[in-house]
Amino acid sequence: MQSFCRFKMSWAMFCLLALMVLPPLAGSAQAVPVTTKYYSIELPANWVVVNGPSKVKDAIQVLLGQKEHKSSILIIVGPAKAGEAETAARANAQRLGGSTPVLRQGQWEFTFEQQGVKGYGIVREDKSSGVLLMMLVSGDLKMADFIYKMRGPYKALVPLKP
User: Fold this and answer.
1) Burial environment of residue 84 by CB neighbours within 10 A (0 to 12, 13 to 18, 19 or more)
2) How far is CA 29 from the centre of its chain?
3) Hey, what's the signal peptide range on this chain (predicted)?
4) Which residues pair with residue 132 across a beta bridge?
5) I need a labelling partner for 58 at 20 to 30 A (CA). Which of 3, 4, 16, 162 fits?
6) What is the DSSP letter of 152?
């Protein structure tokens, strides 16, 4: 009888601990997928889709935000003519008051600052498919590292780490 009580108490303690420990672990381990016809990414648990995916003209736009408001990412992908990446990078850098875009490993990069928050822009194109990606990261760039694990049918659109 005494061993049964010990087992019952041990089982009760185990269940209580499991109820306390498992929910936080499950919440932190789950990633939220974001999928468009151009790409797919897994959002970490502390990121949300603020807006989108939505169609703006012929492009798909998604706005992602970090839950503590430390970082955000705007991704716009759509059809483009070959060579439009440079034009798009220059126009957006100018619009945001950013640096002159630089071509590095197939992507146009520039920095900017809006209302005291630093940002980083990337523009890439898949010339053979006629598709362009523009990505603007505002805030903590390290928190947005997951974006470089983007997958999809257009390998030339996958952004590279700065």
Assistant:
1) middle
2) 17
3) 1-31
4) 78, 125
5) 162
6) S
- Give the confidence band of 31 by pLDDT, cuts at 50, 70, 90: low
CA end-to-end span of the chain: 66
Show the tokens assigned to 82: 């070959």
User: Does residue 93 sit in helix, strand or coil?
Assistant: helix
**Residues for the chain: how many in total?**
162
- What residues contact 81, with CB distance under 8 A and at least 6 apart? 130
Q: Which residues contact 159 (CB under 8 A, 6 or more apart)?
A: 107, 122, 124, 133, 135, 147, 148, 150
The number of beta carbons lying within 10 Å of the beta carbon of residue 76 is 20
DSSP per residue over 116-151, as a string?
TEEEEEEEEEETTTTEEEEEEEEE-TGGGGGGGG-B
Which H or E run contains 2?
Answer: helix 2-29
15 phi-psi bin (left φ>0, alpha ψ -120 to 50, beta other): alpha
Residue 19 has pLDDT above 60, yes or no: no
Query: Rounded to an integer, what is the distance from CA 1 to the centroid of its chain?
Result: 57
